[in-house]
Write a structure and sequence with these properties.
The protein is α+β, with helices and mostly antiparallel strands. About 30% of the residues lie in helices and about 30% in strands. It contains six helices and six strands; from the N terminus they run E-H-E-E-E-H-H-E-H-E-H-H. Strands 2-5-4-3-1-6 form a six-stranded mixed sheet. Strand 3 and strand 4 form a beta hairpin. The longest helix is centred in the first third of the chain and has 9 residues. The two termini are about 25 Å apart.
C-alpha cells in the first residue's frame, strides 16, 4: 500500500509544483519519505486548504551549493532566496516531486478539523497510516481517474 504524508507549503510553492515549474521540495532537514510516497500539499493561511498532491521521487542531501547546482533551475527560487533559506545549514535536502495533481475541490481547514479530531497543519510533515482519518478524508477527494492513476489500474469506461 502507498504511504501518504502531508506537508505545509506557501501558496506560491504549491502553485509552482502543481504547474510543473517547481519539481523539488527543499527542506532544511531531510524528510524521511520513500520514493513512491503520496505527498499531499496543505497551503498555509490565508488559503488554509489541501490543494493537491505529487509522488515522492529521489531524495538528495548535500551542501547547499551542491543542491543549488543540481536543482536550482527547478527549485522555484532565485539563488539569493535559496541561499538565504539555507543560511546556517551545512546540508540542504531536496526531494523530487513527480506527477503533481491539483484536486478539483480543495479540502479546507474547517473540514479537516471537523473530520480529523485535533487536526493542526504540520510544521514539517505528518505521516498518515492506513487507518488515518486524515488519509481517508484526503483520498475521498480523489476522482476515479486520479485513484486509478495512483493505484496503477485502468478505468473501465
Amino acid at each position: 500500500m502507498t504511504t501518504h504524508v502531508l506537508i505545509s507549503l506557501e501558496e506560491r510553492h504549491a502553485n509552482n509544483i502543481l504547474a510543473g515549474t517547481k519539481t523539488v521540495e527543499l527542506r532544511r532537514r531531510s524528510m524521511h519519505v520513500e520514493p513512491g510516497t503520496l505527498v499531499w500539499f496543505y497551503v498555509k493561511q490565508p488559503v488554509a486548504c489541501v490543494v493537491g498532491f505529487a509522488v515522492a521521487g529521489e531524495r538528495y542531501a548535500a551542501a547547499p551549493d551542491n543542491v543549488w547546482r543540481k536543482f536550482g533551475k527547478v527549485s522555484g527560487l532565485e539563488r539569493k532566496e535559496f541561499m538565504d533559506y539555507f543560511v546556517g545549514c551545512s546540508e540542504a535536502s531536496a526531494m523530487r516531486l513527480d506527477a503533481p495533481t491539483r484536486l478539483r475541490k480543495y479540502v479546507g481547514l474547517a473540514e479537516l478539523r471537523a473530520n480529523v479530531p485535533g487536526f493542526h497543519p504540520p510544521q514539517f510533515y505528518v505521516r498518515m497510516n492506513d487507518e488515518s482519518p486524515l488519509r481517508n478524508l484526503l483520498t475521498s477527494y480523489l476522482t476515479k481517474r486520479q485513484m486509478a492513476m495512483r493505484t496503477g489500474r485502468r478505468l473501465l469506461s
